[in-house]
């Protein structure tokens, strides 16, 4: 019994540590001001897949859609034990809503042979929508089990899972192939392995190599860049250090279903949160002032 | 997707569990009522299950003009695939212009599956919904009477308004407690429309082996006074002081996400966009800075008292009373004053 798993991960702005202007004047997100991190619950999804592989055998493929900088979380996945990582990057996919994103991911997953299990984090901290997992399951015509907290039992054809529904739980048995979304309380992600870090910190994707070459030769030196990238790709590939890079053509996407044109929802307006300073009554932290406050609240029947 | 249908109803997905309607479905009927009145179309509830017809009256009492009832053996126990299939059949046949769902774990399991199958848009966890004309900036085409789907994003640093021009129905989920519970009017009636849905045993993909639902130990929504703590409380022990105050006031304990994430207190206590939304007579915010997600869950409180060491804390901007100081000193004085007057 061995399972081929795909883990879908996302690089997200660290919404708890925003520095500078979060939004640009045109209403789009200023990703430069936002430290980019591995979406927390996607780390739990990766851990769930890795520990299942460690127990039962099989492979773990990690796939992300995003800008070339998302290679950082793919390297991180390699450090922790992923067998194969893939970056799907394409400017035509920018501004995809969850519907367009799930369409593209469904095509990407379909490119992979013999997938038994798909693991997603429950939700990503930039949008908190929790929509891509179920939408992807629908597109692939697979059963979905969301809010998974524990993998109780695995057989060749089914998984038994416990879902944490906040006010209770549910134990379900689901047939393979299957898509799961994993909650943050499911496990503690393993740390990166030092030996794997030494090896995979040199892993690069093609766009990263292009940038490396442009920095080295200047961006107009097209011939040198091409030769350099070709050479580096071959070297890295021979060592298993070339991060696979796909685009919309690789997955044979209908571009009208991707990006802004493929999105059913449109952002009409973005407002930065500006607090309008309403008048509030300042109460001094003294026993007398607090006593008066309590008196006032009793008088107006707020308390008592 | 369905074509744009400006005469379509406004629908609320009526979520039921073991023959009981979820509160959020009834709350959505109040917002749905407003939207339907603005659009001058009927408000309908879509009720799926088996032997759930007794729930229909309650949906009428809470504001529905119509109930689309789909009963089937295979809908007895909720699962994403069967419910999504059944609901898609109803949507395809009746072409509602808007469908709203409660953002419960079940609603968040179902709605995206429906949206994907319908190739329609879906906006999660809206904090407000409204109707307005809207011009597409790229085509300059003005779309009449669109649903404005308003929600915080990026950790609450922005508020986004989302629209869906033509990939209908326009769909959104809304958290429990965000919309006010309507007062039931037992004289209201409506039309019950029974619908057959086609489901096959092969659509049942998952076997539910065991279910356990525990009663929430915390009654935040029903409490007149909520004493809430945030990261500034600093420890689980710190919450003991808050509990003393809540006991003295006959109130309930709330918490910000930061306090819950730090493990100071159980998630049942969480107030905010991803927790419970409360509207108490008095909300006391202790050591809560006041991120927009938290404010979304408590800003309609009748009176807000904020206690914070930081005079610049955003929570003070929506507070009626502010005490700048250390809660470890302020709360004992407050408890003493309350006990003395009681």
- End-to-end distance of chain B: 60 Å
Unreliable spans of chain A are none
Report the helical percentage of chain B.
25-40%
Q: How many domains in all of chain A?
A: 2
Question: What is this structure, in a nutshell?
Answer:
The complex is a heterodimer of chains A (304) and B (342). Chain A has helices at 40-56, 71-80, 98-110, 132-139, 194-200, 206-217, 222-238, 287-299, and strands at residues 3-9, 11-13, 36-38, 58-65, 84-88, 117-121, 144-154, 158-164, 168-175, 178-182, 204-205, 242-246, 266-272, 281-282.
Give a verbal description of the structure.
The complex is a heterodimer of chains A (304) and B (342). Chain A is an alpha/beta fold and 304 residues long. Chain A has 2 domains: 3-203 and 240-257, 3-Layer(aba) Sandwich (Rossmann fold); 206-239, no CATH class. Chain A has 8 helices and 14 strands. Chain A has helices spanning 40-56, 71-80, 98-110, 132-139, 194-200, 206-217, 222-238, 287-299, and strands at 3-9, 11-13, 36-38, 58-65, 84-88, 117-121, 144-154, 158-164, 168-175, 178-182, 204-205, 242-246, 266-272, 281-282. Chain A has a 10-stranded mixed β-sheet, sandwiched between helices. A two-stranded antiparallel sheet of chain A has the order 2-3. By secondary structure, chain B is of the alpha/beta class. In chain B, 26% of the residues lie in helices and 29% in strands. In chain B, the strands form 4 sheets. Chain B has a 7-stranded parallel β-sheet, sandwiched between helices. A 5-stranded parallel β-sheet of chain B has the order 15-14-16-17-18. In chain B, helix 3 crosses helix 4 (105-118) and helix 5 (238-249) packs parallel to helix 8. The termini of chain B are far apart. The mean pLDDT of chain B is 93. At the A-B interface, helix 3, helix 4, strand 7, strand 9 and strand 13 of A face helix 3, helix 4, strand 7, strand 9 and strand 10 of B.
